[in-house]
Amino acid sequence: MQKNVKGFIGLFAGIAAFIVIIIATIPFTPINGTSLNFYGSINSTLALIGAALGIIAIIFGALSVKDKDKKGPRKAGIIVGIFAVIIGLIFTGVASLLASITDYANNVPGNALSQMDEANRKEIDNLLDQMRTKYPEK
Q1: Is the pTM of this model over 0.85?
Q2: Are 101 and 27 in contact (CB under 8 A)?
Q3: Burial of 9 per CB tally in 10 Å (0-12, 13-18, 19+)
């Protein structure tokens, strides 16, 4: 009996996509002046890699459908890949927004939040000061 290699590649790519997306939910980037880590560009990059692995899972699952006589995880690869693409793209957007907050807190030049009006910046600065007071750098 021949193995459905494309189906297995699709399933393993889908599983790898979910593992990468789960790793992307871990805050990695430290906020200056605090002992806290928050989301940075590495998180959005990992989520995007997870979405790309989901696309690979869908492609290999679809390629394995034509091999009707072979048993294997072709449907699972397609289903897992679809969910990985959806979740990966959603979390890429969320992580990118949260990364802009981290960039603002770390005074990274050229971030989108630094271009806000003065009143909104003061509110965010007050929240950051409270965080720095509550969670001082170790």
Answers
A1: no
A2: no
A3: buried
